[in-house]
Design a protein that fits this description.
This protein has no helices and six strands. It is mainly beta.
């Protein structure tokens, strides 16, 4: 499961961890196709839009780097 690595940090990382009933692993659809983390209240963000760059969580802003298309 995708998990926020550090909730209080201003720009926390996202890591893969064994799934558990933790708020840092809960994501909800928000705004314009954004994914908001339940624990931090921040959105999944691709900081460079370049393949292979680690994602992070930042304040939700409706920006292009926070839009995710899910099947």
């Amino acid at each position: 499961c995708a998990s926020v690595s550090s909730v209080p940090a201003s720009t926390a990382g996202v890591v893969l961890r064994k799934c558990a009933a933790l708020k840092v692993q809960e994501w909800v659809a928000h705004g314009r196709n954004e994914l908001r983390n339940v624990a931090s209240g921040k959105c999944l963000t691709d900081p460079s839009l370049t393949a292979g760059t680690p994602v992070s969580v930042t304040a939700c802003a409706g920006a292009k780097d926070q839009v995710w298309w899910l099947p």
